[in-house]
Every structure is written in C-alpha cells, then in structure tokens.
TrEMBL record:
Residues covered by the AAA+ ATPase domain: 100-275
Binding-site residues, GTP: 108-115, 249-252
Chain's gene name: ffh
EC number(s) recorded for this UniProt protein: 3.6.5.4
Molecular-function GO terms, alphabetical: 7S RNA binding; GTP binding; GTPase activity
The protein's name in its UniProt record: Signal recognition particle protein
Group of enzyme by EC: hydrolase
Domain Signal recognition particle SRP54 helical bundle as annotated: residue spans: 2-87
Top-level taxon in the UniProt lineage: Bacteria
Comment on protein domains: Composed of three domains: the N-terminal N domain, which is responsible for interactions with the ribosome, the central G domain, which binds GTP, and the C-terminal M domain, which binds the RNA and the signal sequence of the RNC.
Amino acid sequence: MAFEGLTERLQSALSGLRRKGKVSESDLRDTMREIRMALLEADVNFGVVKDFVRDVREKAAGEKVLEGLNPAQQIVKIVNDELTKMMGEQDVPLNQSPKIPTVIMMVGLQGAGKTTTAGKLALKLKNEKNARPLMIAADIYRPAAIDQLETLGQQIDVPVFSMGTDADPREIVRQGLIRANEIKADYVFIDAAGRLQIDEALMQELADIKDIAEPNEILLVVDAMTGQNATETAEGFNNRLGITGVVLTKLDGDTRGGAALSIRAVTQKPIKFVGQGEKMTDLDTFYPDRMASRILG
Ligand code: GDP
C-alpha cells in the first residue's frame, strides 16, 4: 500500500510527543523536524513541506497549544488538518456541462493510466448515474492504445469511436463529437496521446484538441509512483492546457506517493479521483480528509 513508510515515520514522530504530558517548545521543534524529514523522504515537494511546517507551527503558537490541556493530541489534530488542507480540504465533483454531452479530456504521460482511467470513470458514471458515455480513441501514436480502449469498451459495454491510426487526432475528435451527438451520449471521454516526456508537438496537439472539443474537464492522470517529476509534469500540463482536475493512479502500489500529494498545492487544481488497482471498478472519489487519516494511520 502507498504511504506505508510515511505513515510509520509520522507515527513515530508523533508518538514521541504523546508519551509526554507537557510539551516544550523544543519538543515541538524536534517533532516538526522529524515530520519535515518524513515528508521530504516521501517525495513531498520541498516548497510544500516548508509551507506545511510553517503553518503547523503558527497554528500551534496561535492556539497556545503548548500551554493547554493535552498538547500532543492537539498537535496531532493540527497536523491532520494541515495535511488535509495540503490535499485540498474537500472532495470536488466532476464538472458538468449544462447540456449534454459533458466532455472530459484525459491527458498525461504515457503509461500514467489515461486509457484505463477513462474506462473506469465511464463505468462509474454508468453504474452511479445510469449515464451513456462514449469514448474517443485519439491516441494514434501508441497503436495498442486504440485496441486497448476498444477492448475496455467491450468489457464495460461502452461504445468507442475510432478512426484507426492514420487519421489526424483533431479530425478524430471532431468526428467523435458528431457521433456523440447522434447517439445522444451524455459523457464523452477523449483518450488523448501521451509521451514519455512532455514535448512541444504533443502540447500543441492537445491544445488544438482542447480548442476543438471545449472540454468541461481536463483531467491530468498522474502515476503516484513517479516521484519528484510528478509535480514538474503537472505544472507543465497545467501551464499549457489549464487542467481542471487530477487523477492519481497506482495508489495500490508500494509508492512513497508524496510527490503526487504535492500536486494540489503546486497547481491549485483539485485531485478528483484515485486509482487503486487494475480492475475497472478500482477507482474512488478522492477525499482529502480520509486520505490524511490514512496517511497518519
Ligand atoms: P496510458 O498510457 O496513460 O493510457 O496508460 P494505461 O491506461 O495503458 O495504463 C498503464 C498501465 O498501468 C496498465 O497496465 C494499467 O493496467 C496500469 N494501471 C492504471 N491505473 C492503475 C492503478 O490505479 N493501479 C494499478 N496497479 N495499475 C494501474
């Protein structure tokens, strides 16, 4: 499970405090130093850690925690609250178009889990809202991507629009949207191309698709295992495309996960879903408070 190392380190830092009845300034300083190290080692972005530690200290001082009853317990609560704040405070639902279809564009690096997540989300909407989604296969560069989306579509009984690998992705999207209107699809997923690294040609193509499709939602899919690069990738996509939300995938893996948790603080865009396995049902709404509790153990 993700965050095991972080959970262990945080628990050990906080249990030191819990054993003390009274907590001194220097106890708090030591604890915060340990928490800072734990977050950095879990790959949380440096700037995000700095702000986090400052906010916890300020809150503890402001509320005169050290002079009050049960200082350790109150500090744990402050850490929990600040961790929740770092991840966005509240769950944020999918954007909806006032008239159908709601268009959702999936972007991210190759292998992050875009295609899989499009299928998972389509199935979730089908199951929970009785929705009629359509998925558009617009990744022509990875030939297997189209087959993969078609297989997924069959598996979850969701139609897939594709024009093979010879058509221009912009044209595929145009035609796909026409099809969506014909069949009165209420959600359209655009499975756009990814690359191993961000490059200008990819970004231009995605920007063009954005102009054509005017998506209600641009979901950046991020592999939680990517480490420090995750925040840079997120900034790159966000600066160029203006993402509207993030999906963290592979949180079921053995990952330090902290970089992914920094994305919210760095981009100011909400994490909306988390992928926790390879099955089509392994997608959950992201709740910052529950994730904070899970991390604190
Ligand atoms: P894309 O290139 O971004 O479209 O990535 P894919 O959707 O093809 O996913 C790449 C690999 O990651 C596939 O083997 C997926 O099964 C796997 N994957 C995607 N999401 C998750 C997840 O939440 N957990 C796990 N364990 N594997 C995932």
